[in-house]
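Glutamyl-tRNA(Gln) amidotransferase subunit A, pasting as requested.
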Amino acid sequence: MMKTALNSFTGIRDLGAAFAARKLSAVELAQQLLQDIESQQSLNAFVDTNADLTLDQARSAEQIKHDNPDNLLAGVPLAHKDIFVTQGWRTTAGSKMLQNYTSPFNATVVDSLKNVGTVCLGKVSCDEFAMGSGNEHCVFGPVLNPWDPDVVPGGSSGGSAAAVAAGLVMAATGTDTGGSVRQPAALCGISGIKPTYGMVSRFGMIAYASSLDQAGVLARSADDLALLLDSISVFDERDATSIQKCHGQANAPGRILSHYQGLLDSADPRQPLKGLRIGVPREYFDDGLDAGVGQAVQEGIDQLVGLGATRVDISLPNTRLCIPAYYVIAPAEASSNLARYDAVRYGHRTQHYKDLEQMQARSRTEGFGDEVRKRIMIGTYVLSHGYYDAYYLQAQKLRRMIAQDFNQALTEQCDLILGPVSPTVAPAIGSQTSDPTAEWLGDIYTLGVNLAGLPAMSIPCGFAKGHRGQDLPVGLQLIGHYFDEGRLLAVATQFQQHTDWHQRRPGVSQ
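Structure tokens follow.
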């Protein structure tokens, strides 16, 4: 078998053409990628692989492709964030608490992608229970960024982003509670989307903060994201937060692709974004934004204006309140969700205890890492008697104000909101561990979207200097209205048809 670098394909459609022309088979590609994953263990992106299961799925994919040659996803290699439960691969949530857990069933997202013929290469690392912005809070150690092994890949879906950027898979699933799809996508130079809250089932997704968690996908391009997201967007009666209908549209496969393709087909080739109003919040370009990142984002916005869009300067006046609101609500929900890991019903159990109370206390102390214990304590405090009204209730009121800012802007002033994803490029590994709040401040531009439940995505828009003067990727964030993922993806695809930032590759897999 001739070795074919996955990064040599421009995307899923290109790979599908190679399958259709019989230049490559799904089984051959899976075998080669399993070897690549083995040879790139230093990245620490994968936490579990199972060659037998992967090759079984690849053989099934070839049959699916044979029966339906138009199926573009059959044979596409991907990986799942270690927060989605999977049969056959361990699901640890990056924690000692679940270090040896294997689920008896698949998450809905996993089944949806398996049913259309994608091939799972394994599970990829994440911050413990998805709590982190650098993929450093994981029992298996930090994941390295393929662009520079000295910097973080972003978190908490850092393993997903690193695996895609390194060419080990074509795409990967992720979850986004406060930016955990968009931020690692930006820091690794790939594309990632977090859809409308409730659009993708959370069944089988280990909970961090239930009113904020949303499954998403990471891939090379917006076109790949459209194909993948459409296949997992479906109402699921097993998830109480799953949306059945929004703005008169049923939540079902085909909706996103129809909207997306319709917008691309009807665009004027000379001015494809003519008539589109893009809102640029002045609060997103304050002193906290790195100058190089700001310049790359501004140039990305100028590129969209050059394609016919109209820039509208807007204000999201409550942006500064996103961090305090989020870091009250998310830990509160986390403290409740993680109470189930009591060493009786779920999770790690200590070997040294005298009674039930000591057994539970020691098990949770041993099983949870520092960041998780910190958030549990914060959450328990803000929910405690006498403090609920002062903290949690006030945070929920701030959340409403933040959502109203977005809703007013997207209803009255613009069609999309644009800005940076992260204030800086990827920081050095370990540089934020001495300051417990530095990591949280890096989420300032992403948290509001989760508090409002809106869809948003990150696409590569340039490079800026890192801590050693090296060039590192920068992401441009696009925020849309509820159920408007088709428009987001179409605008991103127009941008990527006129730029080549998404085609840049790190040298690790060459």
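Note for the archive: The longest helix spans residues 388-413.
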